[in-house]
Specification:
single chain, about 350 residues, about 45% helix, two-stranded antiparallel ribbon, Rossmann fold, 7-stranded mixed β-sheet
Length: about 350
């Protein structure tokens, strides 16, 4: 009896949640093949991540938001549709595992060279995004770049990454399960986090803009299946309440491991260092200092804040400290020291 009820619960859950399942590399998916982790990392750099799940959304965001365009399944788009979308984008474009049809549609000097099993490869190229990231995981399709392109991460007869002008072809996506291995996270940040906005397009077969889509499983069920499912759910809940009365109270158990809160900060700092993202780290330090100074001084505008801090500290380098640029690690260390000193001087004033 219990087994039958559990089976009914599973079936009902699948039916009711059939439309909630996320496709691979979805920026809101926590599954192993999802892209939630890298989306959060890029957002933490100050990049605005804009998910797009239909062609209409992707076109609108590319025209209005601009920035880097990521297409997680380019082969789901008709060749003409894909070419038009890429043409509308004026910035970098990253394609994950495009097939022959997509490559031909974009007239890229890139060809498929075969498939390889999952392995870790060295960049072996001069592309800054790959060189800074170091070793990365490569799996699936690999590509051969023709003259006019740049190939990285050689594997088998091809390479795991090929860049032709502003378009990057990638064999392996930035799935949650791979992000903590080698330089995968750094490579993702370098390729996708270079602009102010990232349009993350996740094509699906059900997108009306791609040709009408396919029917969901629930479209084939008879009318009234929802009412019947609710009846089953009520019966299961009543059964659970009846069984729960035989059980004792819940027993609290302390967790065996305590994770230091600083581990997240330290881990992000190591990612910044490995990716060579000195400018992003400096921007984070400056923004944090500005966020703490504003409520102390009651200043909301940038010019007013700079003037008030300069008046209280007597320093002339406040505009450069709060809104300047930093390119080297030595400058970053000096910036952190100076920002801390300025904040302490304001507190004492």
């Amino acid at each position: 009896m219990i087994a039958v009820l559990l089976l009914l619960v599973v079936v009902l859950t699948v039916l009711l949640r059939g439309g909630v399942a996320r496709p691979p590399l979805d920026p809101e998916s926590y599954q192993r093949d999802g892209g939630r982790a890298v989306a959060r990392l890029i957002a933490d750099q100050g990049v605005r991540v804009v998910p797009a799940r239909t062609l209409e959304d992707a076109r609108r965001e590319v025209r209005t938001a601009g920035g880097t365009l990521l297409v997680t399944a380019p082969d789901l788009l008709e060749p003409g549709v894909l070419a038009a979308l890429v043409d509308e984008s004026e910035s970098d474009v990253v394609l994950v595992q495009p097939g022959p049809r997509a490559l031909t549609a974009l007239h890229l000097p890139v060809r498929i060279a075969g498939q390889v099993a999952e392995s870790v490869r060295e960049p072996d190229c001069t592309l800054p995004a790959a060189r800074k990231a170091g070793r990365s995981t490569i799996a699936g399709l690999v590509y051969r770049g023709e003259p006019g392109s740049q190939s990285c991460y050689p594997a088998g007869e091809g390479a795991g990454l090929v860049r032709a002008e502003r378009i990057t072809v990638l064999s392996t996506g930035f799935a949650n399960s791979l992000l903590d291995e080698e330089g995968n996270a750094a490579l993702a940040m370098n390729l996708l986090g270079g602009g102010r906005t990232l349009v993350w397009f996740v094509p699906t077969p059900t997108d009306p803009g791609l040709g009408g889509g396919t029917k969901k499983f629930t479209d084939y069920l008879p009318d009234g299946w929802v009412f019947g499912g609710v009846q089953i759910l009520v019966a299961v809940l009543l059964f659970g309440i009846w069984r729960a009365r035989r059980l004792g109270p819940l027993v609290a158990e302390r967790l065996p491991v305590t994770v230091r809160g600083a581990e997240t900060v330290e881990g992000r700092a190591r990612l910044y260092q490995r990716a060579g993202a000195t400018d992003h780290a400096a921007a984070a330090l400056r923004q944090a200092t500005v966020d703490r100074l504003r409520p102390m001084l009651g200043q909301h505008g940038d010019e007013g804040l700079v003037a008030e801090v300069a008046r209280r500290t007597g320093r002339t380098d406040i505009p450069e400290l709060l809104y300047g640029s930093t390119t080297t690690e030595a400058e970053l260390i000096n910036l952190a020291t100076e920002l801390d000193a300025v904040e302490n001087e304001v507190r004492r004033s």
